[in-house]
Amino acid sequence: IQAPHLTGFGFMLFTWLMEAPLIGSLILKHKNEMLRNTVIPERPMFRPEFPQDPETGVVVLDEDRHPIARLEAAMECLPLYDPFLYWTIRDYAHAYRSTPLIVAERIISAVDEPPVPLLISFNADEVRKQAADSTERFRAGNPLSIIDGVFIAIKDDIDCYPHPTKGATTWFHEVRTVKQDAVCVSRLRSCGVILVGKANMHELGLGTTGNNPNYGTARNPYSFERYTGGSSSGPAALVASGICSAAVGTDGGGSVRIPSSLCGIVGLKTTFARTDMTGSLCDCGTVEVVSPLAATVEDAMLVYAAMAGSSKADRISLNP
């Protein structure tokens, strides 16, 4: 492919023309019309579909079942509850009676004046409302699931209503309106989780450090002089600092696995199409996935069980 390239003065002139109010809009209009009328003779991506025989000793999570039912199936795979060094989701479940609202106030105080910018969008009243609803369910003896009242953060490239989705930019929310939860967030919400807000990230996910000049850089909880890794920097820092039990991030080339590794937590990159990408900024392609970050393998398993399930358009022969 022969493509033109610009450097030096030529590039400066081109930038000036593109930013000029009238000339720039005419150039973009012409280029957009060219792209709109371009015919691509074949689909640009091939889906990694393949048949697989059922494995022995594996519990298949029926994708059409409610997330709560899938959680119950996952619970049957876990050993008996035994408190350990780290606080897990089951620790919260056993400790809760009427206290989610109390925990919410402590989390609000921790993130209202954070030492590092962990959240891009946060609404204390919204967190209190969710926690109050969960508290009432516990008082009535009717928690929705094992993850009812558990605090989870959502990466800023995944829709979580009523928060805007900025992708850690200063402008993306102005061209893309959030009207509802992403599918993975909706499934978690139906299980009673308390969604803390939108976690910081490397801008548009285009980097592995988490360095963000727009909202500040989420530092590693174990050493503020070090990066968390990225691009799911905020989710990893929130879990590693103990503010949230789990978080949901996106991973194409390591954006969940890298910060999880650097922050000493568990990050899962799910198999293609096992989680529904609808409602995330990168909701196409065969690489990017939405997946959990958690303090332990057990917690990652439970969050995954709740949010798993491909879109009906992406059903493949590999069962989760």
TrEMBL record:
<dbReference type="GO" id="GO:0070291">
    <property type="term" value="P:N-acylethanolamine metabolic process"/>
</dbReference>
<keyword id="KW-1133">Transmembrane helix</keyword>
<keyword id="KW-0812">Transmembrane</keyword>
<protein>
    <submittedName>
        <fullName>Fatty acid amide hydrolase</fullName>
    </submittedName>
</protein>
<comment type="similarity">
    <text>Belongs to the amidase family.</text>
</comment>
<dbReference type="InterPro" id="IPR023631">
    <property type="entry name" value="Amidase_dom"/>
</dbReference>
<keyword id="KW-0472">Membrane</keyword>
<dbReference type="InterPro" id="IPR036928">
    <property type="entry name" value="AS_sf"/>
</dbReference>
<dbReference type="InterPro" id="IPR020556">
    <property type="entry name" value="Amidase_CS"/>
</dbReference>
<feature type="transmembrane region" description="Helical">
    <location>
        <begin position="6"/>
        <end position="28"/>
    </location>
</feature>
<dbReference type="InterPro" id="IPR000120">
    <property type="entry name" value="Amidase"/>
</dbReference>
<dbReference type="Pfam" id="PF01425">
    <property type="entry name" value="Amidase"/>
</dbReference>
<dbReference type="GO" id="GO:0016020">
    <property type="term" value="C:membrane"/>
</dbReference>
<dbReference type="GO" id="GO:0047412">
    <property type="term" value="F:N-(long-chain-acyl)ethanolamine deacylase activity"/>
</dbReference>
<feature type="domain" description="Amidase">
    <location>
        <begin position="120"/>
        <end position="318"/>
    </location>
</feature>
<keyword id="KW-0378">Hydrolase</keyword>
